[in-house]
Structures are given as C-alpha cells and as structure tokens.
Design brief:
alpha/beta; about 180 residues; five-stranded parallel beta sheet
Length: about 180
C-alpha cells in the first residue's frame, strides 16, 4: 500500500485517482493515506453518503476508495469519469476476464493503472493474461494469439524457451518481492 501511495502522490497533481480495494482494507487505505500522504492526497471512501458526490467533481489530489462490491453496483457511474490513475488492490479478483468484477473494472477509464497482487498466477496463464488485458491490453494482444504463443507451448508442451520469453516480456512490468525480503 505504501509503494502504491508513493505513486499516487507523484501522479496526484494531474488528476483524480481511484483505488479499487476489498471491503476489508478500505479503512486501512484511508488511514494510511491520511498518515503517509496528508498534504498530497485527500481520501474519499465511496460508500454510503460518500456515493452522493458526482464522480466528475473529484480532481487533482483526490483519491476515491471503492470496494469491488460497490464498483459492481456503481460501475456505470464511476465509468463516466476519466481517472488519472487507477489502483487495483488484491487484483487477483480480476484474473477471470469474464467475471463481473473484471468487466466492471474494464469499464473504468484511466490514464494509468496499477495492480497489486501476491498471486498473479495461481493455476493457469489465462489468469495472467486477464490481468494484463486490464492493465495493458496491447502487451499480449487477444486471447487467441496469447494462447497460441504462450499457453499451448508453456502449459501443454513445457517449452522452456517460451517460458523464458514470457518472463523477459513481463520483467519490466512486475515488482516481485519475496516474504524474506519484506518481513524484517
């Protein structure tokens, strides 16, 4: 969260930000924003009475924090605003490209997007493709080409050359930290 807040502070002067987070961490996001970025970001929780403000009324320095559940309900309304930055915390909930939450996230217009997840791939490469379709759809193209180029060779044929190529393509877009690196 702290690293994401640093990015949000850097981008704050240019427009409003949207943080899509699990309900269980909404309060944490608001508290940490107030603690670590009190002069640069104004957190607004998009729930209850906070949902009455028109999304287009938010501007530079505003961070609107919304849960995935409320995003589903207010997707059309939130989608009418052009967000300068969108952050998806626990983004593994968006890995299934056909799920309702993923479709709601795809409906949001943002100049720049960041996904935070500890598990970009749990079972299949399709999950990785689903996340990157949201973040940078041009990186891998459509499902058919990604599947032919990577899924079949890697999952079906155990092709190490294609696995390494995929790793090289992803490296500039992933910050990977291991538990032993951050635990202390």
């Amino acid at each position: 969260t702290l690293q994401a807040l640093a990015v949000l502070v850097e981008r704050a002067p240019d427009g409003p930000a949207l943080g899509v987070v699990p309900t269980s961490v909404e309060e944490n996001w608001e508290r940490e924003t107030r603690l670590f970025a009190p002069c640069a970001l104004r957190p607004h929780r998009w729930r209850d009475e906070g949902r009455q403000a028109p999304p287009e009324s938010f501007g530079p320095g505003d961070l609107v924090i919304v849960s995935y559940g409320i995003l589903l309900r207010d997707a059309e309304r939130l989608g009418r605003t052009r967000w300068h930055t969108a952050v998806y915390d626990e983004a593994h909930v968006l890995k299934n490209d056909r799920a309702r939450k993923a479709r709601a996230a795809h409906g949001l217009a943002a100049d720049w997007k960041l996904a935070l997840t500890g598990t970009p791939i749990e079972n299949r490469l399709a999950e990785l493709w689903g996340l990157f379709r949201l973040l940078g759809p041009d990186l891998f193209g459509g499902w058919k080409s990604f599947s032919e180029r990577f899924v079949g060779p890697i999952e079906g044929e155990r092709d190490d050359a294609q696995r390494r190529l995929l790793g090289r393509l992803l490296r500039p877009f992933l910050l990977r930290r291991r538990k032993e690196e951050v635990l202390p």
